[in-house]
Amino acid sequence: MNVTLKKYKQIAPVVLRRLGYAPYINKEGEQSFVRRPHGTEFPRYHLYVQEEDDTMMRCSLHLDQKAPSYMGSRAHGGDYESEAVQRELERMHGLNIPSN
C-alpha cells in the first residue's frame, strides 16, 4: 500500500525512527525500514521509501507475515491491502506530527 508522509524538514530515516521504524538492509544491500510490533522477527511492517523531496516522502508499506518459504526465494507472506496494514497507516498518520 502506498503512503505519503510529511517530513517537516527532516531526513527520511529520522521521520521513520520517530514512527517506530528501524533501518533494514537486505542481503543485496537494498535499504528499507521495518517495525516489529511484537519484538519478534515476524510479523513485521516493511516500508520502502520510493520518492522524497524536502517536505514529503512517498513510501510503499506491507506486512511480512513470515520469512521466505525456501532458500534463495524473495517471495514472502506479504499483506499489502489488509486491515492490519490499514491500521498501521492510520497509526503512522496519527503520529506524523512535527517535533518541537
Give an overview of the whole structure.
With 100 residues, the chain is of the alpha+beta class. The protein has one domain (2-67, 76-95). Helices cover 20% and strands 34% of the residues. The chain has helices spanning 12-18, 83-95, and strands spanning 2-6, 22-25, 31-35, 44-52, 56-64, 78-79. Strands 1, 2, 3, 4, 5 and 6 form a six-stranded antiparallel beta sheet that branches. The longest helix is centred in the C-terminal third of the chain and has 13 residues, at 83-95. It is globular, with a radius of gyration of 14 Å. The termini are far apart. The mean pLDDT is 90.
List keywords for this structure.
100 residues; alpha+beta; six-stranded antiparallel sheet; 2 helices
Summarize the model shown:
Helix content is 20%, strand content 34%.
Question: Mind sketching the topology for me?
Answer:
Elements (H helix, E strand, L loop, with lengths): L1 E5 L5 H7 L3 E4 L5 E5 L8 E9 L3 E9 L13 E2 L3 H13 L5
